[in-house]
Amino acid sequence: MAKELLRIEDLHAWYGESHILHGVNLTVNEGEVVTLLGRNGAGRTTTLRAIVGMTGARKGAVKINGQDVLKLAPHKVARLGVGYCPEERGIFASLTAEENLMLPPVIAPGGMSLEEIYTMFPNLQERASSPGTRLSGGEQQMLAVARILRTGARLLLLDEISEGLAPVIVQKLAEMILTLKAKGYTIVLVEQNFRFAAPLADRFYVMEHGTIVKQFAQDELTENMGMLQEYLGV
Questions:
Q1: In the chain, at which end, N or C, are there fewer CB atoms within 10 A of the end residue's CB?
Q2: Residue 140: CA atoms inside 13 Å, Cβ hemisphere, count?
Q3: Which helix (H) or strand (E) segment is 29 a member of?
Q4: Cβ atoms 117, 176 nearer than 8 A
Q5: What is the CATH number that goes with domain 4-232?
């Protein structure tokens, strides 16, 4: 029986007066790759931000290993082994790639060593002394993910990591996700690129207007393509 790592129950979230999430319910088991699908504005990014406490007001429940974290500050949620990689990446331009990589604190035991990270991302080793501004978009994305892996986080929330990148880089990121899954990491992906996400995910949640409208497993993908066409235009 798979162990449940993340449970969201009737989650509502606001940015100021704007009510974005309207009762989101989902679960993620340890070692799973789960993808949130939906059009822009459906609430997928807000769901990730709400998990780590980076929205405005929230109500409902966000449980990590059974502990409700809704009232915890973001840095305390991180210390439960949660890593969030935002769409904007957040690379520090004045620091080198390696300085960016070493910046976040270790939050839990078992984080990847520098050697392990460079084995997974050889581009970053080649660019270790390059300033953040000199990295390509793909290298910046690899660095944003690699920073999390060093901290010891085991639940990874990845927001649009393939966006705007060349196909060869997207393929490397897909290989990275499969490698991390094989190592037992749990991954929640927000992705607009359906062709990138489809072969990687164990389960899919489809969002519309701030709520979950459909969920299905990898082996149900073919029979749900008509519904996905309707919701996503894929």
A1: N
A2: 21
A3: strand 18-29
A4: no
A5: 3.40.50.300
